[in-house]
Give the backbone structure.
Amino acid sequence: MNAMLRLPLLLLFITCYGALFGQASLSNTPSTPDASAMLDIQSTNKGLLIPRLTTAQRNAIAAPATGLQVFNLDDNCIDIYDGTNWAKTCGWKQTGVGDSMGTNAWVRKADVVGARSFAVGFSIGNKGYVGTGRGVSVYLKDFWEYDPATNVWTQKADIGGVARIGGTGFSIAGKGYLGLGFDGINHLIDFWEFNPSTNVWTAKANFGGAGRRETVGFAIGNKGYVGTGYTSFYVNDFWEYDPQINAWIPRASFPGTRRYGAVGFGLNGKGYLGAGFSDIDGFKKDFWEYDPVSNAWLQKADLPASRLNAIGFNIANKGYVSLDFTVNSGTTELWEYTPSANAWTQRKSFPGVARYGAVGFSIGNQGYVNTGQIAPLTYSAETWQYTPPVSAPIYSLPTPSGGASSINDGAWTINNPDIYSSNSGNVGIGTSSPAAKLDVNGTIRIAGGNPGPGKVLTSTGSNGTASWGSAIVDVRALGGAIVSSLPTVANIWQFVGSSAPPVIPLLAGDRVIVSGVMSLGKTVAGSDLVYTAVGYSLNGGGPSVASFNFPISRPHFNAGERLVFPVTDVFTVSTSGNYQFGLMIQSPFLNYFDNNDYFSGFIQVYR
């Protein structure tokens, strides 16, 4: 290198080296860095590209520095290391009009094993299930379970019966149901129940109509419904399956023209069915609502475009339709249906390649799209998760103490597991593994609403509102383990005379609740009753428990008149023993009544 060349390079190195100890500016044109910045990057047509890693690659970083940032390829989020955990910022990203809190967003999940189309899928609890369908030159009968918490597919027992395509399925009360379809030769009518706890398939009553494929199936409450389809001809009949009696019942036929490849879902106690292809008038976009109570159909707003072999799922109070084979080609549009407004709203389109014959189901507040046919003999094994938009932030700034580590896809988390929301829709307080819609690990305190010792929350309206009230309002609603329970008002026990009071075994600490009506019987002759106190007692192996809360003062009783008064009380047993229930009267006037005294009501013991 000659001296003339070495001199400019040396000057450049000295200039850059000196800049490293001050401020620096990167720009398309010469510029002065902002006084508050060590590095000021300026551009009108380029951005900043930070390292892009998968979660596994991110976790492999040794001793990450506090503030280290990477772009996570698994969920398209920016991850920032806070010194203890990787925190996500994707929960606040804006992805389109009306989007907020990382919602109206698609995220790629783990592929199911075995690409396929025209499979059957549904969810049971917080797991998803997919099985059967067409692979490359083969019909399938395998069955897979998806756990969104671990993003893992696990193979389960093959379905009962033969391999098939175009079947239908739904879930009811913790069980899955799958049947119908086409095995390459025959249209099938068999129907099977899957128990996830035992991983066993059980044959159920055959479908009530003709065997068929590409039907619509969904659940409403504790019943399943199947309708339309193709069985060497197009059909529009509609059937109800009752798992309690294992029977198929014909219901009002679908009022639209007969068709196959329609789409549907159950939502808010109603069923919805529409679109598909009819041999009478071709591709369809009409949409109908079914009411199982009145067994009647009502036409609703049409889908925005005709659809064939689309997928449908429901989240909260809305339904979703996406992917299909349209008149000319496939589409990736996603449409949201709001029953209360009878309106369709376009949401963020499916980000993958257009396909049809896919599977759709929902788990908690997320929808899932799985498999599908992209082109002849080209099938997909992909799984995508969709989170719908929310109308308001989950919580307002500032963020809660404890450090929010994730506000992602509509789920929220706090590091020390004080508050946790899983993708299943379960919410935990004091636990990071909520097993119910609300799972509280610890003491519950409700300060408002006039609480007090011995009071219980009591329903005050049909909309679920509650307030603090007397524990005697209805003790049967309090729950707990019933140790001993006498029958209700329809039964009478004699406590005076030859009838022995019932014996109730009680333990120290038992909570006893008495509610009913007590009578002193009938007067044997007319008499005056100036004062007495009437009550009851429990006498037995420990100190007696007595109550005299019913003072009575009557100027005159007619012969044959009965004195009846209510009994309501709650107390805790101090000493274990066999107790007997009986009347107590602090007055000589007992002789004025016959021996037909009784208590009518019930005693509940909670241990």
Notes: Helices lie at 3-19, 55-59. The longest strand covers residues 527-539. Residues 3-20, 91-102, 391-418, 471-500 have pLDDT under 50 and may be disordered. The first helix runs from residue 3 to 19.
